[in-house]
Predict the structure.
Amino acid sequence: MRALYRARPIILHSTPSSFPFTDPQKCPFGPFNSFAQKRFKKPVISARTRLEDRVRDPKLDKLITHLKKLQTILNLHQLMSNKKRGPFVSLQLMSRWKNIVGLNVNIGTFINKYPHVFEVFKHPIRRNLCCRVRQKMKALIEEEERVVKECELEAVQRVKKLLMMSVNGTLGVHALRLIRRELGLPEDFRDSVLAKYNADFRLVGLEIVELVDKDESVGVAKVEFWREKEYREKWLSEFETKYAFPINFPTGFKKEAGFRDKLQNWQRLPYLKPYERKEVVKVRTCGGIEQFEKRAVGILHEFLSLMVENKVEVERLAHFKRDFAIEVNVRELLLENPGIFYISTKGNAQTVFLREAYSKGHLIEPNPIYVVRRKLLDLVLQGCRSTRELAAEKEIKQLSSSAGCTADGGRRDGDWVIPILENFDNENPYNSVSEIGE
């Protein structure tokens, strides 16, 4: 007892690591460290894990990064054009727009990266630095507006198809406004398009548009043309192509054992097509859930096919779920079909592409609106290259201004007196200019 009493302070002041039977590292199993044992947890497969583990497409990711820069420039142009004082804005005022357009760098640094788009000069009176959009950029923006007006009938057909896909034949004007640029509609499409074509559309209240007459000839999905081409050219049976979709897996996609058989069975699975009008029932027998999900894939495929650039932000799709009767998780559905869709997370937003429509970052079947927007993007991507032309133009302007000429017609400051002297000479044919001077 005396020995235990003497060893008491040593036991109290000793650390747990001094006893090997209580250290979980030295003795991993036992009754003293049962609380340290960890149970095996099955890895969770969700939309977030699918998004992180997906195979990336660097071409489409790079395209989204470039389009983000173009959209920032267009937002700056919109803010500059709203100012009524003149076609230029001081850099001091533009520095306040940094948070509005979503820039994380100085506004002056951003403008200097694109000399083909912005021109920085010193105000002749106030002597402060000002900025204006170059004429070439303005011409391309005006060309885009003109092409959008010329392709108005095609935009009307796109809206009609969207209304035919909806369950009740109605859509919200706000939802259409969110994808206005993707549909190729003008900014005032509610008054210039929906109200103009009153034989096709009817405005119910202020924020709902309804389809007046359903045209069955228009209600043909774009994937049907691909199926017909596959049936004729590759001599495939109707059983193989009637409900199939074009599949293009990204480079580096790993196919597990049995994946081809599952994909083949899914391609043959029948589903309710986007423009068919039947009761959609979600059942758990005879492949009911698979058919229901495949119907949602068909609607999303046709939705992206109607876009001008075959892409749209994932958040915008949430505004059409109720109208299209899509009751599944849209983002998870897109990630489960990597051969049909691709989600890019660049540009502070998630953008979904129709994979079959793109090749090496370019649209396979370009349209007039896409061609003009690509010209805008190419002008932005020039960056600081080919600036000798800009320096030559600036030098020509300086020489013309020093010589007293204007840039529009090449007239000098004293040319206004020539027609007066000519008229005076015609009235006095017998007198010369030299005699008048005497």
Notes: The longest strand covers residues 118-122.
